């Protein structure tokens, strides 16, 4: 018997070849790029959602200011001088040489436009336990004050509206009240200057400055003094005509928390804005100003 001759078997390696260092580095780079693009997309989507939420609240505030105007016949002023003591009102209004005289007259007239029977009486306006304060309200405070009414410091500054007493809307007693005219989120009510008159933050995370309100006083014009109080400015169209020239402007400082310098703004994408202005959200723009 002839022995069976087995041909020589060649041992081929059929397993997977490992990555080279270069291939591994290229793969990691591709994954990093894709992850970066995905993260950028997620962040952009979150910013868009946050902007949309803020813009929606601005629109709600605009609607509620229109409701206020419908009930009272006028939009609120965007600056106001208030005295808690009736004697202080009387002292200033009877002395034309007093430093507060012109502003006190203007403020009293603004109140009479809303409450024709308004009569200065001692009032706990800021709920701090006394009736001796001189209160200067800026545009952010006026927005919260007129849409919310008085607030109770003992109840987490819950807005309680105004008294239905036509001569003394700032009375805290009584069950018949007018307002509030907006549903405020209590965790976004702040008091920057500690005077007991509140302001309201927008919906953006980490916000530190409130929404600012500027009245055009039914088309008579925006007041530089109102802007000086808040440190913000109105926006103008290309022809130097104010946006919302017959009503009011609402301005959120945006994600950077800065109002910017305001001024000339023509259309979305306008190059006439400072960096601080570009992320502002207003009632005349559907999103950020750029």
Describe this structure in words.
By secondary structure, the protein is α+β, with helices and mostly antiparallel strands. 31% of the residues lie in helices and 13% in strands. The protein is built from 5 helices and 12 strands. The strands form 5 sheets. Strands 3-4-5 form a 3-stranded antiparallel beta sheet, covered by helices on one side. It has a 3-stranded antiparallel beta sheet with strand order 8-10-12. A hairpin with a 5-residue loop joins strand 3 (150-152) and strand 4 (158-163). The longest helix is centred in the N-terminal third of the chain and has 52 residues, at 21-72. It starts with 20 loop residues before the first helix and ends in an 8-residue tail after the last strand. The mean pLDDT is 91.
What key phrases describe this protein's structure?
290 residues; alpha+beta; three-stranded antiparallel sheet; 5 helices; elongated
Task: Please render the helix and strand layout as text.
Blueprint: H1 21-72, E1 80-83, H2 86-93, H3 101-114, E2 134-137, H4 139-148, E3 150-152, E4 158-163, E5 177-178, E6 189-190, E7 199-200, E8 212-215, H5 224-230, E9 235-236, E10 248-252, E11 263-264, E12 281-282
Parallel strand pairs: 9-11
Antiparallel strand pairs: 1-2, 3-4, 4-5, 6-7, 8-10, 10-12
């Amino acid at each position: 018997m002839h022995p069976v001759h087995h041909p020589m078997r060649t041992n081929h390696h059929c397993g997977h070849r490992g990555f080279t260092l270069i291939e591994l580095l290229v793969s990691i780079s591709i994954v990093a790029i894709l992850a970066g693009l995905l993260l950028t997309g997620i962040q952009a989507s979150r910013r868009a959602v946050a902007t949309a939420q803020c813009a929606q609240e601005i629109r709600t505030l605009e609607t509620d200011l229109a409701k206020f105007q419908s009930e009272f016949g006028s939009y609120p002023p965007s600056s106001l001088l208030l005295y808690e003591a009736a004697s202080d009102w009387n002292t200033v209004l009877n002395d034309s040489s007093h430093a507060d005289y012109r502003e006190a007259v203007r403020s009293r007239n603004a109140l009479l436009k809303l409450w024709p029977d308004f009569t200065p009486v001692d009032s706990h306006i800021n709920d701090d336990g006394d009736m001796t304060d001189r209160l200067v309200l800026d545009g952010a405070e006026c927005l919260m004050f007129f849409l919310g009414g008085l607030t109770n410091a003992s109840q987490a500054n819950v807005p309680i509206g105004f008294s239905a007493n036509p001569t003394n809307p700032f009375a805290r007693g009584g069950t018949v009240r007018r307002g509030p005219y907006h549903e405020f989120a209590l965790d976004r009510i702040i008091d920057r200057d500690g005077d007991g008159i509140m302001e309201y933050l927008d919906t953006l995370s980490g916000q530190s400055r409130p929404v600012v309100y500027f009245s055009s006083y039914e088309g008579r014009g925006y007041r530089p003094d109102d802007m000086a109080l808040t440190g913000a400015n109105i926006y103008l169209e290309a022809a130097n005509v104010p946006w919302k020239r017959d009503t009011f402007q609402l301005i959120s400082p945006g994600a950077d928390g800065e109002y910017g310098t305001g001024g000339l703004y023509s259309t979305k994408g306008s190059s006439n804005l400072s960096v601080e202005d570009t992320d502002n959200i207003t009632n005349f723009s559907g999103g950020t100003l750029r």
